[in-house]
């Protein structure tokens, strides 16, 4: 398997998802700020940031396919790739205020949410594997 080709394919799929999410965020920000018409710069930045985040999320998912790496290495690397890009793009797009404190809060929140989701999926798959092994053992 070519990790590069797979990353490009997943990145392209992530582009559409990222744009859809970013446009939703732009609409919410516009509604919250009471904007009656969209500012082209706000819309353009949200569009670009969402597309880039979609590409990064999609391409970074290839990390999970590198079987010679431990799950710990895959998890840390995946989280760091995403967390390195997200706060910067969020500030540039206007999703969070610019500054060190908002970036640190964004990064910390991202890491916390990532940890919660990872832990939830870990226990889900642990239970799934346990149930599967129990069913196989019954036969």
Strand portion, in percent?
A: under 5%
Number of helices: 4
Secondary structure: number of strands: 0
Major sheet details: none
What's the mean pLDDT score? 84
Helical amount: over 70%
Order of helices and strands: HHHH
| Distance N to C terminus | 35 Å
Oligomer: single chain
pLDDT < 50 runs, ≥5 residues = none
Q: In the residues, how many domains can be counted?
A: 1
Which structural class best describes the helix and strand composition?
A: mainly alpha
Rounded to the nearest angstrom, the radius of gyration is 19 Å
Q: So what's the overall shape?
A: elongated
Could you explain the architecture of this structure?
By secondary structure, this protein is mostly helical. The radius of gyration is 19 Å and the shape is elongated. The longest helix is centred in the C-terminal third of the chain and has 39 residues, at 100-138. It is built from 4 helices and no strands. The chain has one domain. Helix 1 (3-33) packs antiparallel against helix 2 and helix 2 (40-60) runs antiparallel to helix 3. The protein has helices spanning 3-33, 40-60, 71-93, 100-138.
List the helices and strands and how they pair.
Layout (H helix, E strand, L loop, with lengths): L2 H31 L6 H21 L10 H23 L6 H39 L1
Question: Which labels suit this protein?
Answer:
139 residues, mainly alpha
What would you say about this model in short?
The protein has 139 residues and is mostly helical.
